[in-house]
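User: Hey, my collaborator sent me this sequence without any context and asked if I could get a structure. I don't really work with proteins. Can you help?
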Amino acid sequence: MKIHALALAMAGMSLGCIPASTDAQTKVASSPDDVADGAFVARSTFGEPTGEALFRRVCAACHMPDAKGAEGAGHYPALAANQKLKASTYPVYVILHGLNGMPAIGDMMTDKQVADVTNYLRTNFGNKYKDAVSEADVKGVR
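Assistant: No problem. I've predicted the 3D structure and written it out in structure-token form, which is a compact way to encode the shape of the chain:
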């Protein structure tokens, strides 16, 4: 099944990755031939230079600017004072691979950006986890 960017735009959807097929194995396209073979095509990336800027632009839309989460059309868990952030690779995994209703947005970020936003979350909003996540840690989870 092919999903076209124009159809998504007309439907009012904004997705960072457009699947060229529904193959179970995901690969990122690096050439037109890869797209024909079912690779995902990155349509946008985040250019924010810091973890805080990434949080404000990307995460805060659902998890709220104060990171206290929200209820309504969906459940957006609080990231503030969140015990699950104690395991440093947990938020990295969720950013990269998604979880429940959270989409996998890590493909639109570099390893450094994933590490930066994870470290920002883990040291702000009542979280005091000082063991920093590195780009190498992200690469290992990616």
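In plain terms: The longest helix spans residues 51-63. You can pass these tokens on to your collaborator as they are.
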